[in-house]
Amino acid sequence: MALARCESYSPDEVAGAVAELLEPLGGIEPFIPASGRVLLKPNLLKGAEPDAAVTTHPEVVHAVGRAVRAAGGAVALGDSPGVGSLDSVLARSGLAAAAEELDAEVWPFDESVAMARPDGARFRRIELARAVVDAPSIINLPKVKTHQQLVLTLAVKNLFGCVVGRRKVTWHMHAGRDRRAMARAVIEIAHAVGPCLHIADGVIGMDGAGPAHGRVRPFGFLAASTDPFALDAVLARLLGFEAAEVPTLVAADEARRDGLDVGETDLERIELAGHWADELRLTDVQPPPMGRLMFVPAFLTNLARRLIRIRPKIDSRTCRTCGICIESCPADAMKVVDRCPEIDDTSCIGCFCCQELCPEGAVHVKRGLLSRFFSK
Ligand code: SF4
Ligand code: SF4
């Protein structure tokens, strides 16, 4: 695991930081296959300008792609955006130009393959995109952001994008209102992807109502690891979160106890090169509004459900009735009433996909009275 300071997206600074990260990992060469392309998997949640900090910045993709090519490798770019075609998201996010300059093939994740399930797995069926399964080598390029449902989206959560299109919605429905179940699904999916190099873009990230409508925040670092769990554990600490507050880190510990060989989350056992977290640590990172509520005792959640629930709320003044939220709602909990989507609270599972994908920022968070007491 390596950390490097990087305070801007100037090509020289990013390239220098990427080289600094790769050195303790043995350079880029071990990640370049003898034949075939290296698949770069950025965070392409939806089409957004690079400055919005929703997607991995093109300069990071560029710098990593150039390092691959300089070492004799060829590059492909792929993902399964939450909304829009891969081509349109690449164009809006500034990655189409990077793909062209890198002579990269674009691999949409549009066909699924069922994966063998190991001992300790809770889910008996996991499907990944064929492009991911067939890629001889993968470099995962997450964006460092907060996340309404899972508190943080880092290396592990970015691999959830290896599930094809609306099959992601099925996972949300499967997990229902249970954040822990969703986190367990996400970590088993990351485990199924297998070995990758992970390079996280934390130069400018997002806090608050991430992963799409939070505050754009200069964090000033890049981080790399061959273990996404180790990378997430270190970055969670760096961002001011305890492991117990991050559902995917909690789920990783549970999965390990079940016999699944997930990566390392114990900070004492993670070898770190470069700037250590104390030097780069950020003290004022705002958690998502849904915050740390997952650890409210279950009996109390049941007792005071209505007071404690955090729900999405549509701002009818901002909504343009595009219908994206309705199409993407896994619970089918939304319908248009008077030209604005209305949410059926009894069906809503609180996944906040509607907020993530709304292009207008019209979905807000409505908090029950007690939720303010339990969230920081
Ligand atoms: S809330 Fe957002 S996504 Fe839903 S219809 Fe309105 S503008 Fe579209
Ligand atoms: S209304 Fe929004 S938060 Fe509720 S289930 Fe649908 S997409 Fe998820």
Write up this protein.
There is one protein chain. This protein has 376 residues and is an alpha/beta fold. It folds into two domains: 279 residues, Rossmann fold; 79 residues, Alpha-Beta Plaits (2-Layer Sandwich). 33% of the residues lie in helices and 22% in strands. It has 16 helices and 16 strands. Strands 1, 2, 3, 4, 7, 8, 9, 10, 11 and 12 form a ten-stranded mixed beta sheet that branches. Helix 1 packs across helix 2, helix 7 packs across helix 8 and helix 8 packs across helix 10. The longest helix has 15 residues. It starts with a strand and ends with a helix. The site of one iron/sulfur cluster (SF4) has 14 residues, from helix 15. The site of one iron/sulfur cluster has 13 residues, from helix 14.
